[in-house]
Design goal:
With 307 residues, the protein is of the alpha+beta class. It is 51% helix and 18% strand. Strands 6, 7, 8 and 9 form a four-stranded antiparallel beta sheet that branches.
Length: 307
């Protein structure tokens, strides 16, 4: 019994492995990415008899209406475009088509054009409560491009709307964990963190979208604060600058006193230095226009005369 159960488990595991291999091969992506997909593609599976009949009738209709039907069967795609073709609701084998001329069958084929160029997405202003309980409004611009046309068409209904809502939520979550002064001073770091959160494997990767850049420091995408908060911050910064100026002045006085004490100690050890300093002072205060002469008189002589 144990042997039979073990063999049954091995068979079921092999069957699941075969199914996963078929799904991953059907959408020209790796098996790891296919795990995140909601819609499993079946373009490599055998078509039913009804589907083959409809496809044959479509070919017959195209031949009957030739050459008029040729203009309905050929689709021209630009260099930056790709087409995802569904035949009777199932993805055609071979992945996305394009660029150039693409052949589609009338009545049975439906195609969706996908633009591979970088697209900008404007994130509306979001009211955010910062870590220090300050309410501000932050907006941003997200630049993204389509990396896998199949996932954009098959795995998500409206990729632009989904990216916009995801960017709004990520912007609120990331900025809400920062202090106000950090948001104002480290916008580039904040932009990189939001981009990393949006471009992770569990966010936009299953949709076939690659986020290239997030900007929140441009003139039109800045951090806005209420007027009252701006005035309060200005007063706070002014008080901080005045305190720093007083500290700098006190440090300067302290250094000056230390320098004077060192100079006095040197002059006390060598009396000639005091005489040289006296001559230097006379040279600096005397000029052609002065009428006064400064002459130092020793204090010791005056004390003797007073006695």
């Amino acid at each position: 019994m144990r042997k039979n159960s073990a063999t049954n488990i091995e068979k079921t595991e092999s069957e699941y492995e075969d199914v996963d291999t078929d799904d991953s091969a059907s959408s020209d992506s790796s098996r790891i990415v296919n795990v995140h997909r909601n819609v499993k593609t079946t373009e490599n599976r055998r078509r039913s008899a009804q589907e083959l009949v409809f496809i044959g009738l479509s070919y017959i209709l195209m031949l009957i209406t030739f050459p008029v039907s040729i203009f309905m069967c050929l689709v021209i795609l630009q260099e930056y475009q790709r087409a995802v073709i569904l035949r009777l609701g199932r993805l055609r084998a071979g992945g996305a088509r394009g660029p150039g001329v693409v052949f589609v069958l009338p009545c049975v084929d439906t195609y969706t054009k996908v633009d591979l160029r970088t697209t900008s997405l404007n994130v509306p202003p979001q009211d955010i409560l910062t870590k220090d309980s300050v309410t501000i409004s932050v907006d941003a611009v997200v630049y993204y491009r389509i990396k896998n046309p199949l996932d954009v068409v098959l795995q998500v209904m409206d990729h632009a709307s989904c990216c916009k809502l995801l960017a709004m939520t990520t912007l609120r979550n990331v900025t809400g964990s920062y202090m106000l002064i950090e948001l104002v001073s480290s916008k580039k770091t904040l932009s990189r963190k939001i981009k990393g959160a949006l471009d992770s494997s569990g966010a936009t990767e299953p949709w076939g979208i690659r986020v290239e850049r997030v900007e929140i420091h441009a003139s039109s995408t800045d951090i806005y604060m209420p007027e009252s908060l701006q005035r309060a911050m200005a007063v706070e910064q002014e008080a901080r600058r005045e305190a720093m100026a007083k500290v700098a002045a006190a440090n300067g006085e302290r250094d000056a006193v230390k320098a004077l004490k060192e100079a006095a100690d040197i002059m006390e050890m060598n009396p000639i230095a005091l005489q040289l300093r006296y001559l230097q002072t006379l040279n600096s205060i005397c000029n052609d226009e002065t009428e006064s002469i400064v002459f130092p008189f020793p204090v010791d002589i005056i004390k003797k005369l007073m006695k």
